[in-house]
């Protein structure tokens, strides 16, 4: 075991810096906590399972603006309420631009 000796003032300075960093982290996360607490967010796999659609159909919904999403660290997330609203609206899953359903 290695023992390292440092001055008490240096140790106190390190402790104060760690406390300040912890406080900054708490303040930063406090702003975003209500956003995630009030709404459940789903990834693409959960949305596909919930709506019984393929990844490609989900991509079409995104491209056409039918299903809003948020991007975080190169990954898309969808609000459960938005997915539910699309399901309740009875959006045809394979509707082409001309309005006809592809079969």
Structure description:
This protein has 103 residues and is mostly helical. β2 and β3 form a beta hairpin. The chain folds into two domains: 31 residues; 55 residues, Multidrug-efflux Transporter Regulator, Chain: A, Domain 2, CATH 1.10.1660.10. The protein has four helices and three strands; from the N terminus they run αβααββα. The chain has a three-stranded antiparallel beta sheet. Helices cover 56% and strands 10% of the residues. It is elongated.
The CATH class designation of the largest domain is Mainly Alpha
Helix/strand/pairing category: mainly alpha
Number of domains: 2
Poorly predicted sequence stretches spanning 5 or more consecutive residues: 98-103
* Strand order, sheet with most strands: 1-3-2
Strand content range: 5-15%
Report mean pLDDT, rounded to a whole number. Answer: 84
Number of strands: 3
Radius of gyration: 24 Å
Tally of helical segments: 4
Q: What percent of residues adopt helix (DSSP H or I)? A: 55-70%
Taken in chain order, the helices and strands follow as: HEHHEEH
Terminal CA distance: 71 Å
């Amino acid at each position: 075991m290695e023992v390292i000796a440092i001055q008490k003032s240096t140790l106190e300075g390190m402790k104060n810096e760690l406390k300040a960093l912890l406080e900054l982290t708490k303040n930063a996360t406090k702003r975003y906590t209500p956003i995630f607490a009030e709404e459940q967010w789903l990834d693409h796999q959960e949305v596909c399972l919930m709506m019984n659609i393929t990844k490609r159909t989900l991509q079409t919904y995104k491209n056409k603006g039918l299903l809003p999403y948020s991007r975080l660290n190169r990954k898309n997330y969808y609000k459960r309420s938005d997915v539910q609203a699309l399901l309740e609206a009875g959006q045809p899953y394979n509707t082409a631009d001309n309005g006809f359903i592809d079969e």
